[in-house]
Specification:
The complex is a heterodimer of chains A (244) and B (231). Chain A has 244 residues and is an alpha/beta fold. Chain A has eight helices and ten strands. Chain A has helices spanning 56-64, 103-111, 120-126, 142-154, 172-187, 199-205, 223-226, 232-238, and strands at residues 6-7, 16-27, 30-41, 45-49, 71-76, 88-91, 160-164, 191-195, 208-213, 216-222. Chain A has a seven-stranded mixed sheet with strand order 1-10-9-4-8-7-6, with helices on both faces. The radius of gyration of chain A is 18 Å and the shape is globular. Chain A starts with 5 loop residues before the first strand and ends in a 6-residue tail after the last helix. Chain B is mainly α and 231 residues long. Chain B has one domain. Helix content of chain B is 77%, strand content 0%. The radius of gyration of chain B is 17 Å and the shape is globular. The chains are: A alpha/beta (244), B mainly alpha (231). The interface between A and B is medium-sized, with 31 and 22 residues.
Amino acid sequence: MAVGVAAYADPVIPSYALELDGVTVSLGGRRVLDALSWTAATDEVTALLGPNGAGKTTTLRCLTGMLRPDAGRVRVLGGPPGGANERLGLMPQSVGAWSAVRPGELLRYLAGLYPDPVPVDELVEALALGPLLNRPYRRLSGGEQQAVNLAGALVGRPDLVLLDEPTSGMDPHARRRTWEVIAGLRGRGVSVLLTTHDMNEAARLADRVWIMDAGRVTISGTVAELTAEASLEDVFLRHTGGAV
Amino acid sequence: MNPTRVLRHAAMELRMLLRNGEQLLLAFAIPLGLLLGGLAWGPGLGLDPRVFPASVVAVATWSTAFTSLAVATGFERRYGVLERLVATPLTRADLIAGKSLAATTLVAIQATLLALVAVACGWRPVWTAAGALSAVLATVLAIAAFAGLGLLLAGTLKAEVTLALANLVYLAGLALGGLIVDQPPWLPTAALGTALRAASEGALAPLALLILAAWAAALTLIARKVFRWTS
């Protein structure tokens, strides 16, 4: 169901870590992103919410330069996608690593690709990865793989982090640790884009939320604005195709 | 292209290749078994022991630069490894260069090992500068051609389909592609076999080199055009 965009007024014009303007992508004859427009302010946590198939992962692929839109403009840290990868960290939604790689070796390898990486030991401690370091990636649980992926996204000391469902599959301890790490990123001036199906996570972490459905933004605002009269989950349900 | 990142990536690719049991089988066990079996029983089957080890080096090049690369890249694409790496400072050119360097290094290790074992078994190739240069050139061109074909499969098909097809094509190349038995060098496999067998007798095979160069250019261009980074 198509729903009109209902954006709240923004009193201050911030500088943007991410900008999408009229981005359209068709894959296999299906329009996945339909003139999608939204922004993510610098130094904030921005949540991009949407049901399965809404186009979130396609949006992330446009941001990393994996996909080139058929129309529209994408800016990442003020430049074209792929132009500032030394300042970007990506946590993919699934896997994202060789099955035989050990987390310690993966993190050292990734650290070696960046000019000023975070010491791997610091990340290992912050995300409690110590017991996992020498275990093949394929033997880790889904939540453990996500924790390693998060460390991989942060090891380059990024200014902007793209987190695709960062806590899916994590146990409550790991989820809380991850939330603390994400909150700490914002405290250090790192811009974060977060996709999630966990409304509690979005409400807890995000400064601004964009809800999309069928490739378009249907509503956006700060968490306080969106939840003034209903829970974020109710707002989500009301503004996406599964509305009840 | 950043040489440090290319080297780091090549080292990682090589570690991942050498950690995979199936790849080790393809890279070392099958060529070594073929070499020892061929030297022992090949003459009875009409295989010339003076050039047979060169044919086995061609087989090893085929298995590493085509089959191993296709299978590994297919699963990297399926598991999102490529997607993640493209969002790091490692550029696509760095990534392809790292892969190529890893494959070339592995072929060099295989060729050295096979040559040492063959020499220990009594093989005495005719060494000439032109022959050696021709062998190196043919191998480099073949790696480019085979890698282009491997990336063509891995970059367009599902990982499981790539796995099945790459093994099928590997066996077809082994049995019918002119790697071991002389054939007109129109296929890249036959051209490599012809060039390496000629080089092991100190001779040049200019037509085979030309054909390999044409295959290398065509297959890498096509792979570059059709390769998709996500599955």
